[in-house]
């Protein structure tokens, strides 16, 4: 996919973009009370779930279309732009008919290209911002594919939301962040607004602040945070919603980072350190080249003596000793173990090509 022309950032270049509001709209009074507790001057869009895709049937699945009547009533009183999730073409029609200001496609929908295609067609040519949450599974191409489908339907005011991934690894989070995936998306589409949803990543209130700060440190363009007037009694996501007051404190506590700096001294220092990093990288590459030429030599030697490429005991020794050496250099042993797995893979590859090389043929063979 080539980079789409995503130069328009919502209504402005404002950063961070803040979206807050309840997971689900449960009643007009719950919605109104929640919003009254928020400082609406600090919130760009109010979120509210109308339809809730839930893991198990029988859970609260949202109030449906009637909730739009409550939204419109509260909008008359407080004035705000409303954002909600759509998971079907019917949802799109109802949301557009009721004047939604921003729509997003949820993680459970992004996994399914058929659904995304139908939604993209229902949204054809709309001007309002449409955000795509990452798919539940850590698959960057599905995420990009959904954005591409929307773009092909002329939905150009696009954005992405990182809400974490379901993985088998043990994690303190409800959904593992795997920050490198949204960072890769951002490297490919630098102009695509990328928000973080710390509520779904964390799954519990106590993690929201650190996750929000992490997103700001990684240059995310904004946050979507679930807020509820009475989180403990919320009908969905009750462990992860913040009270409006706690959300206000969160916003006050966040340190917003600049993308770059105009400070000349800072930029000069940055250049000096980056030159040193360039030099260190050259040395790393030279060391890798030296190692791999030794690997080639060992490969030839093994082939001449009919000895196998993979040597378990030597490999085990390396996998044990290098992380130990790393510790004394203050390096993370797990990082070094991972690095050596890549080096070993390349080493085996090189020796395999040595083994497969045909013997130099004589001119008259
Ligand atoms: C280079 C060798 O071959 C393989 C590659 C290794 C490496 O790159 O360090 C280690 C063990 C072998 O599996 C070797 O036998 O030493």
UniProtKB/TrEMBL annotation:
Cross-referenced InterPro entries = Aldolase_TIM, Chorismate_II_sf, Class-I_DAHP_synthase, CM_dom_sf, CM_II_prokaryot, DAHP1/KDSA
Root EC class: isomerase
**Database matches in Pfam families:** CM_2, DAHP_synth_1
Keyword flag Transferase: yes
Q: Name one GO biological process term.
A: chorismate metabolic process
Tell me where in this chain the Chorismate mutase domain is found.
264-355
Keyword terms, alphabetized = Coiled coil, Transferase
Q: Which domain of life is it from?
A: Bacteria
Q: Which GO terms describe its molecular function?
A: chorismate mutase activity; transferase activity
Coiled-coil regions listed in the entry: 263-290
Respond yes or no to whether keyword Transferase is given for this record. yes
Q: What is its EC number?
A: 5.4.99.5
The protein's matches in PANTHER family, at most eight in alphabetical order, are given as: PHOSPHO-2-DEHYDRO-3-DEOXYHEPTONATE ALDOLASE, PROTEIN AROA(G)
What name does the UniProt record give this protein?
Answer: chorismate mutase
Q: Which organism is it from?
A: Roseivirga echinicomitans
